[in-house]
From TrEMBL:
Keywords: Endoplasmic reticulum, Membrane, Signal, Transmembrane, Transmembrane helix. It is found in: Endoplasmic reticulum membrane; Membrane. The chain crosses the membrane at residues 183-205. GO terms for cellular component: endoplasmic reticulum membrane. InterPro entries: Emp24-like, GOLD_dom. Belongs to the EMP24/GP25L family. This is Transmembrane emp24 domain-containing protein 11. Residues 1-17 form the signal peptide. Its main location: endoplasmic reticulum.
Length: 215
């Protein structure tokens, strides 16, 4: 498993769109830090490298993308094979980092010599597909209602993010205080040991000198 060299932080960033290159059967993963009970929506598209044109094609027929989502507790939230483009969804059950792994199902026969692929990925945190919902609306009232619901969801997501980050800061503060307390006690113990060793050495030398009748 190969992890992309960045961490997607979901704090107040409800969408992250980017692309990356992969080889045949190569797996790449990203890490998303999200609170619990949060809907994650990922939209992807695969482009295949054309050796003749020396450019990426707009589509990649015959190819697919295997998407796996796990937590650090190795709980599998999603494991599914999709086509060359599509959308996947999953909901987090607990706060923390989630690992999203993507792997093409290409082979040398399909990709004509193991050519590289470009994967476009758009990850949205705590958002529903508003455009699709509006497209199904029958009148302006429903459209406004959908937009209001979407706005409320975003506000709830921001509040959830704030609470999650507040909990993380509290845990970090408690860990820092415990560490500082342990360092303080260790320094006190070291000082006590040094003083005890000094007193013992002085007493030993005094007894030695007395025994040798040097004092």
């Amino acid at each position: 498993m190969r992890v992309l060299a960045f961490l997607l932080s979901s704090c107040f960033s409800l969408s992250a769109a980017f692309y990356f290159h992969v080889g045949e059967r190569e797996e790449k993963c990203i890490i998303e830090d999200i609170p619990s009970d949060t809907l994650i929506t990922g939209t992807f598209k695969i482009q295949q490298w054309d050796m003749g044109r020396q450019d990426f094609l707009e589509s990649a027929p015959g190819l697919g993308l295997f998407v796996t989502v796990t937590t650090y507790n190795e709980e599998v939230l999603l494991s599914k094979l999709y086509g060359p483009q599509g959308t996947f969804y999953f909901t987090s059950h607990s706060p923390g980092e989630h690992i999203i792994c993507l792997e093409s199902n290409s082979t040398r026969l399909v990709s004509f010599g193991g050519s590289k692929l470009r994967v476009h990925l758009d990850i949205r945190v705590g958002e529903h597909d508003l455009d699709a919902a509006i497209a199904q609306a029958k009148d302006k009232v429903n459209e406004v209602s959908f937009k209001l619901e979407h706005l409320i969801e975003q506000i709830e997501q921001i509040v959830k993010e704030q609470n999650y980050q507040r909990d993380r800061e509290e845990n970090f503060r408690m860990t820092s205080e415990d560490t500082n307390s342990n360092v303080l006690w260790w320094a006190f113990a070291q000082t006590l040991i040094f003083v005890s060793v000094g007193i013992f050495q002085m007493k030993y030398l005094k007894d030695f000198f007395i025994a040798k009748k040097l004092v």
